[in-house]
Design a protein that fits this description.
eight-stranded parallel barrel; TIM Barrel; single chain; alpha/beta; 38% helix; binds D-mannose
Length: 347
């Protein structure tokens, strides 16, 4: 496994030099944030990222995310232009040494939580998804924003997007995903890059918008859309594992044995009785997932892809980007490293 850590670029309060101090840290997971979704990333911005990461003694070889423009997901006539831009981004990232690109195909909103600062018993704060809170949320009132969402949408844009999505169903979304993959996977193959789709988070429809990368049956279907090793997965344990209907261990076993997992997001989540969930510390006993079992499966299948500790709580008085502080993610990284070392030695 290649241990990595997400970094949001120069404006990130978490500094690269601190990331470098986490034992066993290898790669920085980052992206170009200075161009609108769908546009081509400048070679200068890519080179600057690479330089910053390498100057800190880390490796720039994985990107999260190259976002997919809504016109591609909606299958609009303008999609071809955005797909060409996407192909160009793959080529440019490859020139800079990138080997893996993470992206998602969620309509309009990326990950969704109902509260970003829920105080847990120990005084730390975490991201939570409470069903009763969700029912009271109106994404169209323009006041709602989460760090995972594209903040450039104005109220009117959102309304138009919701209208566009009301005209397409899940089958159409599948068709649009296939169209996209058929155009980008060959470019990824030629560029020696593996694509790793992120599952929908949470893995069910939100605000009436369709979501399709949700569980085993659909992931099987996804992998067959273009049956190439370059068409692979990011397995996010907390996304797929936040509902009891997914057998996260079975999926990790199956897809890592198939060589289709290129990137692992490892975090724990506590599933509540009504289907709500709270993010928790990485340690297995803090949530509903058995992190040792997850690492054991990856170890058994000789996982060599990228892995990063995912969302951390806010602890020790840290403030910053919800889910993406330094301290708890660094604890998560060390916990994961410890498990991995033990698995290697105790066999
Ligand atoms: C949440 C992240 C996601 C992920 C995208 C990938 O914290 O895991 O926002 O980066 O879905 O495109």
């Amino acid at each position: 496994m290649k241990l990595s850590f997400r970094w949001y670029g120069e404006s990130d309060p978490v500094k690269l030099k601190y990331i470098r101090q986490i034992p066993n840290m290898r790669s920085v997971v980052t992206a170009v944030y200075d161009v609108p979704v769908g546009e081509v990333w400048s070679r200068e911005s890519i080179a600057k990222l690479k330089e910053d990461v390498e100057n800190a003694g880390l490796i720039f070889d994985i990107v999260e995310s190259v976002p997919v423009h809504e016109d591609i997901k909606l299958g609009k006539p303008t999609r071809d232009k955005y797909i060409e831009n996407y192909q160009e981004n793959i080529r440019r990232l490859s020139e800079a040494g990138v080997k893996c690109i993470c992206y998602n195909f969620m309509p309009v909103f990326d990950w969704t939580r109902t509260q970003l600062d829920k105080e847990l018993e120990d005084g730390s704060t975490a991201l939570v998804y409470y069903k009763d809170q969700l029912e009271k949320m109106d994404p169209l009132n323009g006041e709602l924003a989460l760090p995972g969402w594209d903040s450039s949408y104005k109220k009117e844009d959102l309304k138009a997007l919701f209208e566009d999505y009301s005209k397409i169903d899940k089958e159409a979304l599948w068709g649009n995903l296939k169209y996209f993959l058929e155009k980008i996977i060959p470019v990824a193959e030629q560029s020696d890059i593996v694509m790793a789709i992120h599952p929908d988070d949470p893995p069910f429809d939100i605000f009436g918008l369709p979501r399709i990368i949700t569980g085993e049956v659909n992931i099987d279907r996804f992998l067959k859309l273009v049956d190439s090793p370059s068409n692979g997965l990011t397995i996010c344990t907390g996304s797929l594992g936040c509902t009891k209907s997914n057998d996260i261990y079975k999926m990790i076993d199956k897809y890592s044995a198939q060589g289709r997992i290129h990137f692992m997001h490892v975090r724990n989540v506590k599933i509540l009785d009504d289907g709500s969930f709270e993010e928790s510390a990485h340690f297995s006993a803090c949530g509903s997932l058995d992190i040792v079992k997850i690492m054991e499966i990856l170890h058994k299948n000789k996982f060599e892809g990228y892995l990063r500790p995912d969302h951390g709580r806010m602890i020790w008085g840290e403030t910053g980007r919800p889910g993406y502080g330094l301290y708890d993610r660094a604890l998560g990284a060390s916990y994961i490293t410890g498990i991995w070392e033990a698995l290697g030695k105790l066999k």
